Amino acid sequence: MLIRSLSGRLLLLTAAFVMLIEALFFAPSVVSFRENYLRERLDRAQIASLALLATPDDMVTPDLEQELLKTAEVLNIVLQRDEARVLILAQPAPRPIDATYDLRTENAFAQWRHAGRVLAMGGDRVIRVIGMPVNGGGDAIEATLEEARLREAMIAYALRILAMSAVIALLTGLLIWMALRRFLVRPMTRVIENMRRFAEDPEDPDRVIRPGSGIAEIAEAEKSLAGLETELRSALRQKARLAAMGEGLAKVSHDLRNLLTTAQLLADRLEGSADPRVARVGPKIIRSLDRAAALCASTLDFGKTEEPAPVIRTVALRALAEEVGDVVFPDRNVAEPAAGGVRFVNAAPEGLTAPADPDQLHRVLVNLARNARQAMENAGRSGEVRISAARSGETVVIEVSDQGPGLPEQARANLFTPFKGGATRGGAGLGLAIAAELARAHGGRVELAASTTEGASFRVTLPAGPRLAPGGRPDRRSAA
Q: 257-301 pLDDT, tens per residue?
């Protein structure tokens, strides 16, 4: 679980990065160690030569000579003074000298090459090292030594460096891990725990997080979360109240629709009354009852579950527009229509089709056409409600226009929002809300195309290409 946590991964990454940085300095430090090691052997060789030169006859016993060479860790010592090479101390070399390294003129490339060779290929050679004596002790000093001792020292130094790097990496990672746990993971855990507790009971006000972190970023996150949880609590309470109100409204609408149906049956008798005043008022009462009953039915329909997915077919738009006209204008085919009334015009061209659910598209156009007729009748205007259609690129555009007074500003601000004002006076906006929902289910939209004092126009835009039916294949059956 450590590797999957944020703090655990940071611990490992920190250790890895520290080791990487140490590795970048590892090779130069080993090369530097090699040079220091050789110079130290030359310094020891010079001290050993001074011990010899301090004797009266420049002679020491064989035992002392071996002791000096052993202390200097070299095989022999040569001192160059006054343009002469003098063998100061010596012991039999195991074999001839394999290579010579002059530290006075050695460049960086030669240093790296020799250090790499010693580590990679072993140090079984005998080498000669030349350097400058300290404090003007001669022109040069030479020492012969076994390369194996150099390799052992370099390996021991490298292991110490690696061990020290590992310790530094782990300590650095551990400190960062502890700091991360203290200043980031623990506050985040508190926020996560609060979110879990809040999800269990969002309506409990005590479960709203109280910002208290000393870290500015975490405190800002807690403050934002507290605001979000508070807004969510308010939204849930409002949703619960709306659900309860909607349930009560559905019951009231159901009972009211039954009462209005009875009132409609009784009001039908008013049209045959001999009293001219009653006969004149009767149709108005009937129309008002019809609108009230339609509003109750729309409220009940809107309160139902989500609309089913559309079953896409190829719909002949002119035939569908005719059906809409028959529903919205049931008296349009009478022998002598009333003069000065509202007329229906089907301007959809023959042969134009659209992939849609015929029943749902029928409901969309009925809602729009009914709103258009009611707007004109309420304003006392005559004229026509027109349904036209055309194909535009990859879409099919259907327009329902009227010659009414247009939509008031308040209605335009709340279009397609249920219970916040409709397109007609006294409406609840359910027809437009349902029409917009059905159009979205088809991948299209309903929008207000124009609204002036000379009339309004609503535009329905649908994809012209075939859409898949729920069975996974486009349904090509005609709805006409």
A: 666 666 666 666 666 666 776 666 666 666 666 666 666 666 656
d(CA 191, CA 208): 11
289 and 316 inside one domain: no
Which residues 6+ apart lie within 8 Å of 234 measured at CB?
none
457: its two tokens: 């126009």
Mean pLDDT of the chain: 79
**Burial classification of residue 446, based on how many CB atoms lie within 10 Å of its CB (0-12 exposed, 13-18 middle, 19 or more buried):** buried
Domain boundary among 156, 172, 188: 172
CA 294 to chain centroid, in Å, comes to 46
- What's the predicted TM-score (pTM) here? 0.44
Q: DSSP strand E in 33-83: where? A: 76-81
Residue 387 exposed, middle or buried by CB count within 10 Å (0-12, 13-18, 19+): buried
- Asked if 297 and 317 sit in the same domain, the reply is no
Q: Give the whole-angstrom CA distance, residue 456 versus residue 407.
A: 7
pLDDT number for residue 473: 41
* C-beta of residue 345 within 8 angstroms of C-beta of residue 384: yes
Number of structural domains in the chain: 3
